[in-house]
Amino acid sequence: MKALVVEDSRIAREGLVRMLENHPELDVIGAADHPASALLLIEQTRPDVIFLDIHMPGATGFDLLEKLDYNPRIIFTTAYSEYAIKSFDYHTIDYLLKPISHERLDQAIAKLQLSTEKQEIESRQPLEMNHKVFVKDGDHCHLITLESIRYFESCKNHVRIFFDDKSTFIKKSLNNIEERLPRKFFFRANRQYIVNLQAIRSIDEAVHDGFVLTLDNGYEIEVSRRQAIDLKNLLSI
Known about the structure:
By secondary structure, the protein is of the alpha/beta class. Helices cover about 30% and strands about 35% of the residues. The protein folds into two domains: about 1-125, Response regulator (Rossmann fold, 3-Layer(aba) Sandwich), CATH 3.40.50.2300; about 130-235, CATH 2.40.50.1020.
């Protein structure tokens, strides 16, 4: 797990980095002494967790978090207890008061590991058809249910989602998406497409084995010969 330390005090910064060396599960990829330099490091390395001071010259740790385009886990390290409540407006794992003891740091990292394991378990659970998915198309945001998605199309490093009469791109692989979909409703037709079975209007034999699926919007998708066997088994009584 990639970790970054952001602390303006050199003594505190170097001390925390040394303490983190006792935790091989963390890879400390850098340390910054100011929010501006920290922002550059974060954009370059995308750490999973940030050990973040609050009071720093020119800006606070909260100011830094407001500039990020993703939500890393945060372990605050500060001498001020009065920001504890505000800290949990962010993806906060723990709030450590200086001076930080080894025991207290161990507790925070244990919480971090539990949070990571929980997220990994949840990310492997298949979604339900009524589950709402957030997707963004330029300046437009959509909150759509799985059942409204007709099919997914792989397009190099992105996947195009077709829903209702719209489509949009997300930066994920088709394999990653397939892992989250309920298999009794979504079918991998070939390397390029995943189809919502409820959107299929008809199934015809293809010229070179396999099938051709015609969706309720008239779009046709070929099912490879190998996948055709799985489709027949899936749809058989």
